[in-house]
Amino acid sequence: MNREGIIQELKFKAVRSSGAGGQHVNKVSSKVELTFDLENSMALTDLEKNRLLKKLSSKLSKENILLMQCEETRSQHKNKELVIKKFLETLEANLVVPKRRRKTKPTRSAIEKRLKSKKKAALKKLNRGKPRLD
Question: Which parts of the sequence belong to the Prokaryotic-type class I peptide chain release factors domain (predicted)?
């Protein structure tokens, strides 16, 4: 993943933040929206694009554009930094290839221990019943 190349492909839009805040919020566009065109990205390989398309499918638009936004602070610049950081963390987390799971057998002692505990539990339950008169 080429961080600089990806950052250059990002598009930003400043919009008015929603919610309470008085007169200042109504005048200033401090909320930052980040858009990233996943399919037409030159910074990602085809393998990376496919992996991201699968993993981020719920967060993508119909045109495979990822939209993220941040309105945490009053500063547009700080919100821009935060949304870029959040975007890069999302990409890195979703590009990680999970390790393949190796099938393992339980050890002989573990098998014996399990069977022993099962026998013990079965005997305990057997002893709870009414005594037989033979």
Answer: 16-32
Tokens of 116: 């022993």
Residue 106, φ and ψ in degrees, nearest 5: -70, 150
For the chain, which residues make up each domain, given as ranges?
3-95
Q: Output the six-digit token pair for 23.
A: 């007169």
Say how far apart CA 87 and CA 106 lie, in whole Å.
Answer: 42
Three-class secondary structure of residue 34 per DSSP = strand
Taking the domain 3-95, which CATH number applies?
3.30.160.20
| pLDDT of 28 above 90 | no
Structure tokens at 111: 């098998």
pTM, full prediction: 0.70
CA 43, CA 67: separation in Å to the nearest integer? 18
Which residue spans within 1-134 are E strands per DSSP? 11-15, 31-37, 65-70
CB 84 within 8 A of CB 99: no
Among left, alpha and beta (phi > 0; psi -120 to 50; other), residue 64 is left
